[in-house]
Amino acid sequence: MAGQFLKALKLDGPGVTLRANEQEPLVAPIGPVAMKGTTDASTELISSPQRLAVDVRNVSLTFETADGKVDALSNVSLQIGDGEFVSFIGPSGCGKTTMLRVIADLQQPTSGTLLVNGMSAEQARLERRYGYVFQAPALFPWRTIEKNIKLPLEIMGFSDSEQRQRAARYLALVNLTGFERKFPWQLSGGMQQRVSIARALSFDPELLLMDEPFGALDEIVRDHLNEQLLQLWDKTGKTVLFVTHSIPEAVFLSTKIVVMSPRPGRIIDIIDCNFPRTRTLEIRETPEFLKIAQRVRVGLRAGHSYDE
Amino acid sequence: MTSSALAFPVSRAVAWRQHPVVERYAPIATIVLVLIGIWYIAAVLMNLSLVRDGFEREETPYTVSDLLEGTMSAERPLLPAPHQVIAAFVDSVFGYAPTAPRSLVYHSAVTLSATLLGFVLGALLGIGLALMIVHSRVLEKSLLPWIICSQMVPILALAPIFIVVLGAMGLQGLLPKSIISAYLCFFPITIGMVKGFTSPDPMQLDLMRTWSATPRQVLSKLRWPSAVPFLFASLKVAITISLIGAIVAELPTGAEAGIGARLLAGSYYGQTIQIWAALLASAILASGLIGLVSLAECGVVRQMGTRP
After folding, report:
1. How far, in Å, CA of A103 to CA of A124, rounded?
2. How far is B219 from chain A (nearest CA, A)?
């Protein structure tokens, strides 16, 4: 474990105090290193040697199926800095969900190395360093909304008063105050997905992994949630990894867009996307936006096979 | 005759049919009446030769109405008429002190105590086995075949062996009967709970993994609540089986009390009416027990906020 730390911290440059078993944020006496997710926008701008939230090097993952081997990920490398909003886009079967699951240690890569917040994916999972939002809200139907948000907190052993405070705070964050006593079936699909986001945030992980969270929602609700998600990202300064099918969604939300292609699953383009942190839906009409969207589309087309 | 003269009775008939009480109870009442009718016809047909032989043996002249009357009031009919059964039932329920050996209340209470103890033992065993099977593939492979085999052996053959073995160990009375009852009723609970414990959505299980929940937390916060509907479905099956188990256990043991003992005594002495009265008692007991389980289910389901 200590070895992993050393390896990870070399990237941060000098001046970083090494402490192997970390619960508190790392202490960084010198240097402009953005440490915890609580960085404000000003330090964000000057932190050039960014600490890496996710460091993927030459990762491959092969599934053994009845029809033979399937290369879900083939030799994928990707570095994601702290506080970035990275979208993964690509046709079905390009491995974007697998990518997220590998980072979350829900699946193990066949080969390659993977560091999450400077530690192995398993370690990051065991230390609860990330929150995962699935395609469906996956709320527990026998729990009220408040108790759904408290569930990870119960599991992690937060005190009762802390649980209550956090549930209230994160329900307010996703604009659902007043729905504490409702059961999931009493909420619309969009509201349920917001609850699942609040649940993922409730234990304040540095990293938020979102797998097509708004895929099942209609366009208007989606726009609305996209704006809310951006505000949330801006407020909390978390690193977000976001899987989507939608080009406008990817361009609107991201600081970096990763275009992927199937058979074998690989990265074909990484596009930087430097709109200001606070942006509104109106930027979707600007030429810069359309230019980036066009580049994403070209990348997607190149990777897409039409023979099916 | 004008059409308006016709209209009045028709509309009245419709109103009568649509009365909520009628709508709710008419179907079941019709079926009960039809069954009772068939029962009476069957009683006449089956007892006819018996009654006729009786008249001819005594060489008394008889008419058709004498014959019919005879079939309805024979002392040991092949098939007693419903009113005979009900009269015998009412008499043996209310005609004696509840502790008297001729009271059906007394015999029902004896069987009921064995049933309830057997049900509790069977439920604990069933749930315990299901837990072991769900948590270990080795146990699933090794236990499940034996569990299925255990239900292939006819309980009528096993019951005397149980009684003899347990008797040699100094166990008599309530416990051996409960064990036979438990032996029968654990099976549906095991099968139902294995299904129930494995019913959570893969996404919910993944979520628990991302929070690095312990197996115990996954059990208490996800698997248990998910299994509740399966639990009540299997408990309803199990409680009637455990009643049957308790009655069957009273048959080969020469038990002096219990519904099984009443059935046995009735068949020894050709007291068909007594047999039917005991059957009626066990039917009422069974529906009462299912009713209790359903009541508990209603309470729990409401607590869990299930969609009405």
Report:
1. 9
2. 12
Nearest CA among B110, B157, B149 for reference residue B261: B110
Encode B174-196: b = buried (16+ Cβ within 10 Å), e = exposed. Answer: eebbbbbbbbbbbbbbbbbbbeb
The Cα of B174 is separated from the nearest Cα of chain A by a number of Å equal to 39
Alpha-carbon span A137 to A151, nearest angstrom: 14
Q: Is A155 on the interface with B (CB under 8 A)?
A: yes
What pLDDT score does A39 carry? Answer: 39
- CA B206-B211-B216 angle, to 5 degrees, is 85
Interatomic CA distance for residues A24 and A14, integer angstroms: 20
Tokens representing A65 are 């199926």
Q: Give the angle subtended at the CA of A58 by the CAs of A52 and A64, to the nearest 5°.
A: 125
Closest CA in chain B for residue A128: B211
Mean pLDDT along residues A149-175: 90
CA dist., res. A43 & res. A36, Å (int): 12
Q: Please give the average pLDDT of every successive group of 10 residues along chain B, which has 308 residues.
A: 52 72 88 94 89 85 84 86 91 85 89 94 94 88 87 84 84 85 93 93 92 91 93 94 90 79 87 90 93 93 78
**Alpha-carbon span B239 to B261, nearest angstrom:** 20
The reply to whether A179 touches chain B by the CB within 8 Å rule is no
Provide the chain B residues 162-201 that lie in CB contact (below 8 A) with chain A: 201
Outline where chain A has alpha helix (H): 2-10, 41-46, 96-103, 121-126, 145-156, 160-173, 189-201, 219-236, 247-253, 287-303
Q: Which residue of B has its CA nearest to A199?
A: B207
Residue A168 CB neighbours (<10 A): 14
The ipTM estimated for the assembled molecules is 0.76
Distance from CA of A129 to the nearest CA of B (A): 9
Closest to A201 in 3D by CA, of A248, A148, A252: A148
Average the pLDDT over each of A97-111, A173-187, B152-166 and give the range with the smallest value.
B152-166
User: Which residue has tokens 């504490």?
Assistant: A180
Instruction: Assess B206–A contact: CB distance below 8 Å, yes or no.
Output: yes
Of B151, B113, B121, residue with least CA distance to B247 = B113
Domains of chain A, first to last: 2-14+29-141+205-307 (3.40.50.300)
pTM greater than the 0.90 cutoff? no
Residues in chain A: 308
